[in-house]
Amino acid sequence: MTTIAPFGSWTSPLSAADASAAAARYDGARFVGAEVWWGETLPDEAGRSSVRRAIGEAVEDVLPAPWSARSRVHEYGGGSWTTDDDGRLFFVEKTDQRVWTMRPGEQPVPLTPEDPGARHGGLRWQNGTLLAVREVHDDAPVPRRSVVSISLDGTEVRELVAGSDFLAQPALSPDGRRLAWVAWDHPDMPWDRTEIRVGDLEDGIVTTWRAVTSGDTAALQPEWDAAGRLFYVDDATGRWNIRRRDAASDRPVELIAPADADTGGGLWVLGVRWYALLEDGGIIAVRTNGSDEVVRIDADESVRTTDLPARSRTVVEDVQGSRVLVSGAAPGTTGIWEIAADGSSSLAVGTRSRLDDAWIPAARPFTVPGLHGEVHAFDYPPTSPDFAAPDGELPPYVVYVHGGPTAHTGGVPDSRITFFTSRGIGILEVNYGGSTGYGRAYRERLRGQWGIVDRDDVAAAASGLAADGRADAARLGIAGGSAGGWTVLTALASTDVFGAGISRYGVGDARLLATDTHDFEARYLDGLIGPLPEAEALYLERSPLGHTDGFRVPVLLLQGAEDAVVPPTQAQAIRDALAERGVPHAYVLYDGEGHGFRRAETVIHALETELAFLGRVFGFDTPGVPALTLD
């Protein structure tokens, strides 16, 4: 029997605790003999990152507590662990950023020396060599970054190559004579301009190198095949597609099975890969055009789509013969799938929603015209088998703004989205101009226009949804974290579309971000707004703190106390401005949290606080969640 109740007040079997438990984060996966090992962040263990394996029906920690595999290279880390072919684990310990090694059941031993200024990440085992990206913080104004090899007896860390502000994704040729890697320099970001470089190795050190891409594009992920040919992805034609070339000659570059889709994305973390070469000469690849799909490209360049259900955050993790491991998110499931040679897939490791499919909202691709061109989004309507709203009532909606801003959402409802839609609150995820997944031109729409294009696009998407008769125009909220929080605050200060805003560790003053943030993003704003000090007037004009007179609707601020990317001073400045203007608000500071919330208790509290906030502002009851008092 269906119960009639106002949108937002529906009860749901998905609690905030359930949503927290379902929000597992997987960090890499490997074939180790007949086993699958994977990295997993454990919210119930204060966000500890373990490496795990399945023994029969039981899950076992290869990396036991209190050890935690987490890199801080570029602050966002990535590639924090790998293995050799015999099941020896190599990992970066969170607390000291050293590389350690162990076998299951044994105690870890260090492979790199104690050095409080050194960090490691992007670990890769290739051809009997352990490679890593090393970042050294000392008295120099910019950290020194290099590709290193690490001896397995802990006696030597050898620098193979340096010479650029940033480098990533090292790949060693099968004969061990050449190294390929991605390099870029300030003020570019890796989705703006990079080079694929190839160097000759003598005595394990790069002696000479040359760039094999133009430097005007965002080339990524070099890989070698057994014949010594170099593969990589490049967006010279407007889409990240796979290329092949003979790195030892000047033969023309070959474009492999080009498509109007991206095999590639924002290189925020080390170790991420969007394709892999197969032993039979084929390629397994992720293709993104809004949502993801995984295809197999045969040696004759014929393309077959796999049946992988994952449609978002899809990454190729490992290959063993004809077997492939791919991680990603599918409706109701986040996990790691194994893809067989025939394109069929099976879930190897995963976290499934405890709800049946009737509770999972169907993602509707939604495109509206905007001031700067088409705006792409995904609509998740209120969804419940037990409840319906009174006739004529339109639902409240919250526009979700992803961070980055050079990032992407792929149209898969996660547990956080379902937490709200199952209670009668719609969610609209917007891939505003600047997002990946729609080609270089769409990505570059934000160049020099951050605070304008993103603001206008989210407002256009929300207004378009209301004009479509799918949302209550008087009850439109907006929520986002990091760069998404900036867009939230900008939209609240400069438009009248939204009636409430939720900023998670959001940017309020772009000048403070430019001076306070870490080196990886230290020049990011050069491309998004302009270089300082020449563009200071633009920074003042764009920043929400420069338009506090525009704040009129209630705001919820959520912040990690240990955030090194967007320090708490940003949220505190917004809080003070809201208080000065008498705008209703709440500010929550979470001890022990950085940029993004990992602890179960934080995720639970944040979800319940957001729900209570929306109920308080939009006038519906929130059963089972304490009411929120606004200052």
UniProtKB/TrEMBL annotation:
Residue ranges occupied by any Peptidase S9 prolyl oligopeptidase catalytic domain in the UniProt entry: 415-619
InterPro entries associated with the record: 6-blade_b-propeller_TolB-like (IPR011042), AB_hydrolase_fold (IPR029058), Peptidase_S9_cat (IPR001375), Xaa-Pro_dipeptidyl-ppase/CocE (IPR050585)
A GO molecular function held by the record: serine-type peptidase activity
Pfam families reported in the protein's UniProt record: Peptidase_S9 (PF00326)
One GO term (biological process): proteolysis
PANTHER family (UniProt xref): PEPTIDASE S9 PROLYL OLIGOPEPTIDASE, PEPTIDASE S9 PROLYL OLIGOPEPTIDASE CATALYTIC DOMAIN-CONTAINING PROTEIN
Name of protein: S9 family peptidase
Source organism of this protein record: Microbacterium oleivorans
Organism ancestry: Bacteria, Bacillati, Actinomycetota, Actinomycetes, Micrococcales
